[in-house]
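Lab manual, section 2.4: Encoding a predicted structure.

Procedure: take the sequence of the chain (281 residues), apply the prediction step described in section 2.3, and record the output as structure tokens. A sample record is shown.
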Amino acid sequence: MLGIGKPIREKWIHCGNDYNEFYMYHKNDNDPPARRNKRHRETAPAQKNLNDKQSRRYFIRLAYGNFNHKDFHVTATYDDKHLPKNFDEALRDLRNYMKRIARRCKKLGFPPPKYLGVVECYDKNGKPCRIHHHIIISCKLSRDEIESLWHKKGMKKGETIGFVNADRIRMANNGIERLARYITKYPEKADDTEDAEELKDLHKRPHGQRRWIQSLNLTIPFTTYADKKYKPRMFKKSLEHYRDKEYWEELYPGFRFIDCTRERSDISGWCICLKMRRITN
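Recorded output:
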């Protein structure tokens, strides 16, 4: 049976940029009360560690809620001379890079940059790779200006400590999410347990660190709850039609369907994860 006669809760995560996630699941005793219009600020992970499934999902929400086609994906690497000796040194380089960009923006009278930055030193299989950085950034600087600031004190104008490339973010085909998943090494199928046997080791902590940094001016997701929208029979129907775009857009008028997955837990049963974007003129 896909549906069980227990109270169903809708958890609505408002991420910003009209992007929303809806989770439908069997309510449990530890859930907060569903007070009308009560907003619950989403708690950031205790450690910004991309080895954790929930941390990766939080990172993707931040990306969706703060960046668009006007912003940049920056890849910054090192030449042999400037290659960091360890993770901490690479993290310091990333922080200093963001500080230089912030100072340049302030000098030119631009708003402070918004960014998410990742230090990558292990691949998706946990094997060591050459240290590099991925940054999603929103600022008024040009592509050339952003790239030129990948240097260290004392270097000549135009010199950098390695290859750096800034590209505009592509929004087509869920470009923001694809980029965030690429950066976090989080495959799309990780949200769907239809291939559970294949994915059983996916979320085990790989060897090494994938830590991110973020600016303080990001829009942080908040959550609201509803306990009366879904009845058990409706929840069962939703489980059966979870891939049906027309079904969801009829159920949520004013929203455009992005994706939907379902998961099953031995403890809490089925959970639907629905991703929608609010339609704006």
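Check your result against the sample. The radius of gyration is 21 Å.
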